[in-house]
């Protein structure tokens, strides 16, 4: 039995420590995912908390068949999409400037963030999940409910577009 299955069983048994361990285990990944997709840290924190609230609200109907983190990504992705449907005029999220990184590195990160934000939603989704959340291609396919060839195509297409967008920024 994997760790997720043990946590789910313990949560179903009503153990508060299991709930706490579950949140501690997955909160950082879901928060980073939301942070990459939203305009501010506060928005990312709010939507991350909402994702966990929704997970626990529907917990008694949850059927564990894989990784709970994937289900949390689905919830968070839906919340992020809803966020932009409600407020389409929000500016693109910027990466926080690190005091220890040189100015050129910060500029490069901002250029990359802008380029990722310029991608269509399906392409941006696979790039974020693969490169920023370190999910495997098969996990992405399962999470998004699409075939593995389509995931590979979207990543390839997104990389082409990112190269083009980043070249434009250099000129």
Shape, principal axes of CA atoms: globular
Largest sheet: none
CATH architecture of the largest domain: Orthogonal Bundle
Number of strands: 0
Low-confidence segments: 88-101
User: Can you count the helices?
Assistant: 8
**Helix-strand pattern:** HHHHHHHH
Strand-residue proportion: under 5%
Structural class by SSE content: mainly alpha
Label this structure with key terms.
2 domains; Arc Repressor Mutant, subunit A; Rna Polymerase Sigma Factor, Chain: A; 0% strand; 171 residues; mainly alpha
List the helices and strands and how they pair.
Layout: H1 3-12, H2 16-37, H3 41-57, H4 68-86, H5 103-118, H6 121-132, H7 137-144, H8 148-170
Describe the structure.
Helices cover 74% and strands 0% of the residues. The chain is an all-alpha fold and 171 residues long. It folds into two domains: 1-91, RNA polymerase sigma factor, region 2, helix turn helix motif (Rna Polymerase Sigma Factor, Chain: A), CATH 1.10.1740.10; 101-171, Arc Repressor Mutant, subunit A, CATH 1.10.10.10. Helix 1 packs across helix 2 (16-37).
């Amino acid at each position: 039995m994997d760790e997720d299955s043990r946590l789910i069983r313990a949560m179903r048994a009503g153990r508060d420590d299991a709930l706490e361990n579950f949140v501690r285990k997955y909160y950082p990944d879901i928060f980073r995912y939301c942070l990459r997709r939203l305009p501010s840290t506060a928005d990312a924190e709010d939507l991350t908390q909402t994702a966990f609230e929704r997970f626990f609200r529907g917990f008694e109907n949850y059927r564990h068949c894989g990784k709970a983190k994937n289900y949390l990504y689905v919830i968070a992705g839906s919340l992020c999409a809803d966020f932009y449907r409600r407020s389409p005029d929000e500016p693109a999220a910027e990466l926080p400037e690190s005091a220890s990184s040189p100015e050129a590195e910060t500029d490069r990160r901002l250029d990359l963030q802008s380029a990722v934000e310029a991608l269509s939603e399906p392409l941006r989704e696979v790039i974020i999940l693969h490169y920023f959340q370190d999910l495997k291609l098969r996990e992405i396919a399962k999470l998004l409910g699409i075939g593995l060839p389509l995931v590979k195509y979207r990543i390839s297409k997104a990389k082409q577009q990112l190269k083009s967008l980043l070249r434009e920024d250099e000129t």
